[in-house]
Amino acid sequence: MMKMRKILVSQCLYGGKTVRYDGGDTTETNPIFLKWKKEGRLIPVCPEVFGGLPVPRPDSQRVDGKVLTGSGKDVTAEYIKGAREALRLAKENDIIFAVMKQDSPSCGSRFIYDGTFTDTKISGQGLAVEYLRNAGYRVFGEESLEQAEACLTEYERDET
Ligand code: SF4
To answer: Domain tally for the chain?
Structure first.
């Protein structure tokens, strides 16, 4: 029988735990996501919490190869630690791809904030997504669930 492949997801999309920097709730309710959740496919990760950062925590952005808080504190080491742990779990669970929360300095896959703390988004990716992609994993944002579902269907068809 075909082994059910796992999908790495941002913990704040998975829900059930307060992990976001602002303590907010961004639990995903899209039926595709809920189906995967019910199937037991999802591996939730929060790179920033894995990195040892508290909840809530200061808003941080990628700035010139580092990650800084709005007041200029360098939190790059925590972000790297969290990105490595997310990648370790991706490998350990043999994931097929990841679905990560858009715009985050860890989890953003198409957009991030520009490092000026002026609420300006630019094309870019978070640090954990960079690690995942560098290791060869495909990463989608929560706005691309249909595309991710198509990818999964294609994979499972090829496997049978
Ligand atoms: S690091 Fe990722 S999983 Fe954690 S709160 Fe931020 S966007 Fe969500």
So the answer is: 1
